Amino acid sequence: AQDLQDVPLAITALSDEELQERQIDEPIDLINYVPNMFGGNNTGLGTANAYYLRGLGNTESIATFDPPVGTYVDNVYIARQNGNNVSFFDIDRIEVMRGPQGTLFGRNTTGGAVSIHMKKPAEELGGWVEGSIGDFDRKMLRGSIDVPVSDSMLTKFSGFWLDEDGFVENRTTGEELNGDEAWGIRADLRFMPSDSIIWDISAETVESSSLNITSSFSDLSVFARPYDNGISDNSENRYSQTGIRASNDSDGTLEQLATGNGLGNNVDSWAISSNLAWEGDFGTLTFITGIRSLEQKFIIDFFDGPGFAGTYTLANSGEHDQFTQEIKYNNTFMNDRVDFVGGVYYHSEDNTTDWSTLFDIGAPLLLADREMDNDNTSFAVYGQADFMITEAVTLTAGIRWTDEEKEIDIQDFKPGLAANNPYPNILIFPAAPGTELTTANLEAAGIATKLNESVVTPRVAVHWQITDNLMAFASHTEGFKSGGWNARATSAQELIPFDIEEVETQELGFRSDWLDGTLRLNATFFWMEATDFQVPSAFVRDNGTIAFITQNFADLENEGLEIDVSWAPNEMFNMYATAGFQDAEQVPGEAIREQQANCQAGLGGGGQGIVTPSCEIADPTRSPDSTYTIGANLTTQLPSFNGYLSGNINVRRTDDINVGTSGLPNGLVDATTEMNAGITLGVGENLRFALECQNCTNELVQHSVLAGTFYFNEPRRVTFRARYSF
Description:
A hairpin with a 4-residue loop joins strand 21 and strand 22. This protein has a 22-stranded antiparallel beta barrel. It has a 5-stranded mixed β-sheet with strand order 1-7-8-5-6. It has one domain (4-725): TonB-dependent receptor, beta-barrel domain (Maltoporin, Chain A), CATH 2.40.170.20. By secondary structure, the protein is mostly beta strands. 47% of the residues are buried. The protein is globular and about 75 Å long. 4% of the residues lie in helices and 59% in strands.
């Protein structure tokens, strides 16, 4: 593999050992270690991660929205954000690339990409097993075993099981919420029929149940922010009062919700991937195939009401299937002075989502009940070459052409239910003629039900190997994020499409090693412009009321600096630090200027849009001016029993941040500091015990605000682990 110190990219790479040392148990934990990265679970959904890199991110998980930070497992793209908090089986490394990856990774990586690489089967019999217990009655088992069948066929089997009660007490039903239940198994096969062919095949299945429901502190309402009422300690008792009873087999249907049951979020998925590499005198051909299927069923009360169906509740049942195929060619030319990679890429996705929305007006009122089918197809051709101009200077030039088609079809069940209501405890009123959520009504309103885009995204970079230990680079890269539809709308007139978002980024940086390779210092300056930025803004309905929808209402400009430092003077001690600085600014278009002139920020839906209550343009959401991380690990040998004792600590500081969109006070969060720490005792070569804490100081950190309700980080968690390797 190429040394990342020689690559002109802004990238953070973490090995398996570093993942364990830093207590990274799931992908969302990465936000503590990557400069200019922020994130959290989607509102309501503990299985979905909303990543933000350099001001670009997405909090919507419905299938008509695509995330600008792509997630990849073994080079296979995971399209849906609702299931991107992928399970860790046996990880080799994780790489987080910042900025658009328009040439080699393609669409929906304008903010960056999280690339997870699983360990391949080993040539010798061996493995490990780990068990852990922790706060909130958390119990986890996981392990992996390598079983070589022959010199040419190797296998690996991995699995995990997790059970946790949760840290939110439901005062209405007496249940514990925001826990985790999950299990998964994975099988890997490496087949090497000759010296020139390596074929890796994997199959996995995972079932998980995880809520991220809004919660209150002490005796506050969910609409009262703890910070504003003197509460800043996450150890305060957190509670919910929704009247919907929890269920680990929620089917996400209106029928189940009408009985007062089904609160939950369940995701069942399976995936098969294949990576066939054929190396010869002609170069290397790689065939990467991915098949992934995901079912998600959830019922979530966003306003935490004590009624049997909650206050503002969404019941959702979705099926999401995807297929990807990439054929990649690598070779060197001109006496190894030109290194070329090129290929073709195909992506097909079928999504079916059936969902209902209820609002309590004294009794549950059905706002909408619809089913949507949306299909995505993407085809791309790309090529990139590194030209060695001199022994020290290399020029990189690449280009990718992408053609993308999307189609939506929707049907409305509400008219039929209004005519013959099967749920006597739910109010169902007929929709006004022409507003029903149907494909025919969309087309009658002039709303496109098909989108097609062809986009060219180039990359140019030059890097200069000044010395063996110092490299400088400059680059220009472009990328794009797909368009889509406002599928959360409750009338046909509001289910309108938005266009693609395009990003251009320039980077200037260096990579360096000092003190005989024990000290590493990397820095990257960046300048970014996102045109046709997808943001929410005011939409005036026919009756004069205002809705807030996503459109290409603005541009986003950002510039900043990212620094990575690590120092390992010996095998017993290492420390690391990262710092991210950015100055993001939204540049509004005509529609937002009009909203600004009318000062509509405080109207409707809790103040969406990007205009502040004082009629200014809000700071971009989830884009703190600075983030800092510092950590260290110290190990002491214990010769008396052939063991060791090590301690680790890391601290993350995040500057003031706007986690809403319009700059309302309930979305403005002061700077926060979070700390993780742990002690590990190794006994012999195979056994080790660890005592760890995450969020050791119980810092309260607000991640989101939704229509005046709040979502926070998890409280302090202490975990004891035992791991045996063989």
